[in-house]
Design goal:
This is Gfo/Idh/MocA family oxidoreductase. By secondary structure, the chain is an alpha/beta fold. Helices cover 35% and strands 21% of the residues. Helix 5 packs parallel to helix 6 and helix 9 packs across helix 12. The chain starts with a helix and ends with a helix. Bound molecules: nicotinamide-adenine-dinucleotide.
Length: 395
């Protein structure tokens, strides 16, 4: 929708719940979008909500979602800690207000499904914030799949090597706990890239994963590192490695290889900055040199959130247009639920030691034959190093 069309349409009244770190991205976005007005903000911290209203000259500062909804809203942005999303979304849906919810949609799959169902039943749009889909480079990668440059996507690799310091986890009491944060690097950081993976490779059939805590164990109970293998219903395969125990941060790299043999790499470095796309294809030169990794790549949270503002704006603009046009937002509550389901499957697999299956994985041409005397049949320890033949040969 053009700015002129937005100006001519009736103004949309917006409320923001939660006035913490990420609320600025929402407030600035609506302020910049023609035809939307943030009429109220809400936070259980009354000093914080008053301060936010004063900073942005927002007419109403209230301390409950119910009071915010009483202002008569068209759209509500949910920027509270994850476990509180469900209650706000259900209230908003019942009030007939369209909802844009920060990621993760929830920490609980049943809650996420309730939220999707409530919004569908009440005929309101539900969008979930995955603003990295709105990087021009992320959209260009999607286009390289759609226009056949990559062919059918067959392999994905995601590397999320980020740095967080103890203060990040200590700043907010809800961070780093299973009850309130719902998880660690998977739930809070990697979920963005899990969403990109599902956008590129489609429906996940099976997940096998493991988690551990290597650096932050003194002050968090959730994982700071995770690895997973994902199989897709298309037959595609992917691996994911994610950690907040790296320093310096190496940012994020997502590689998608297609059936043409071409590989696209999306790189976010430093964390929070626009993704950059490199495509390696036979007969074509790389679009752009890969990012050079240097020391000094650790970025503080405020800088990361600030760098995300243009992409929040792009997604919020898409959501506003969907509300105005009665369409479907680019990232829906169902997308948010699917991303959550994938990461919860990594936790389940880590707990049980077994893969989690959602759907059949098509038998490929490369089915390994059964062998006798395989590792799976025996729990015998590896032979000691000194009797390993290859080590002897090196002496
Ligand atoms: N899309 C992104 O890249 C991105 C980045 C950062 C945070 N987030 C998400 O945004 C959400 C908030 O994160 P944050 O870093 O801004 O958190 P925060 O702790 O800085 O702010 C949360 C605010 O919500 C308030 N609050 C808590 N419960 C409330 C309730 N029931 N009603 C009203 N207010 C309530 C708190 O007082 C606090 O001011 C999280 O779900 C987080 O994952 C997304």
């Amino acid at each position: 929708m053009t700015d002129t069309a937005r100006t001519q349409a009736p103004r949309l009244r917006v409320g923001i719940v939660g006035c913490g770190n990420i609320s600025r991205n929402h407030i600035e976005a609506y302020a910049a979008i023609e035809g939307t007005e943030v009429v109220g903000v809400c936070d259980v911290d009354t000093a914080r909500v008053r301060q936010t209203a004063a900073t942005w000259q927002i007419p109403h500062a209230v301390d409950s979602a119910a009071a915010l909804l009483d202002l008569g809203l068209d759209i509500i942005s949910v920027c509270t800690p994850h476990p509180t999303h469900e209650a706000v979304v259900l209230q908003a849906a019942a009030a007939g207000v369209h909802v844009l919810c920060e990621k993760p949609i929830s920490v609980d799959l049943t809650a996420a499904r309730n939220m999707v169902e409530a919004c569908e039943n009440h005929g309101v749009a539900l969008g979930v914030l995955f603003q990295r889909r709105f990087w021009p480079a992320a959209a260009a990668l999607r286009a390289a799949i759609d226009d056949g440059t990559l062919g059918r996507p067959v392999m994905g690799q995601v590397s999320v090597l980020l740095q967080r310091d103890p203060e990040y986890y200590r700043a907010d009491a809800w961070r780093g706990t299973w009850a309130n944060d719902g998880g660690g690097v998977l739930m809070t950081q990697a979920i963005h890239y899990i969403d990109l993976l599902q956008w590129y490779l489609g429906e996940v059939a099976e997940v096998y994963g493991a988690v551990n805590t290597f650096k932050h164990g003194d002050y968090i109970e959730v994982e700071d590192s995770a690895s997973a293998v994902l199989k897709f219903t298309s037959g595609a395969l992917a691996t994911l490695n994610a950690s907040t125990a790296a320093s310096p941060s190496l940012g994020v790299q997502i590689r998608i290889t297609g059936s043409t043999g071409a590989t696209a790499e999306l790189s976010e470095f430093p964390e929070g900055t626009d993704g950059r796309l490199t495509i390696a294809a036979d007969g074509a030169s790389a679009a752009e040199a890969p990012a050079r990794i240097t020391a000094g790549a650790n970025v503080d949270l405020a800088a990361i959130n600030e760098a995300l503002i243009p992409h929040h704006r792009a997604q919020i603009e898409d959501f506003v247009d969907a509300v105005r046009g009665g369409g479907i937002p680019a990232v829906t509550g169902r997308d948010g639920t699917n991303a959550l389901r994938i990461l919860l499957a990594v936790y389940e697999s880590a707990r049980t030691g077994q893969p989690v299956r959602f759907a059949p994985f098509p038998a490929g041409v490369a089915v390994p034959p059964a062998r006798s005397g395989t590792a799976a049949e025996t729990n015998e320890p590896s032979p000691p190093a000194e009797v390993r033949p290859e080590i002897r040969a090196n002496k």
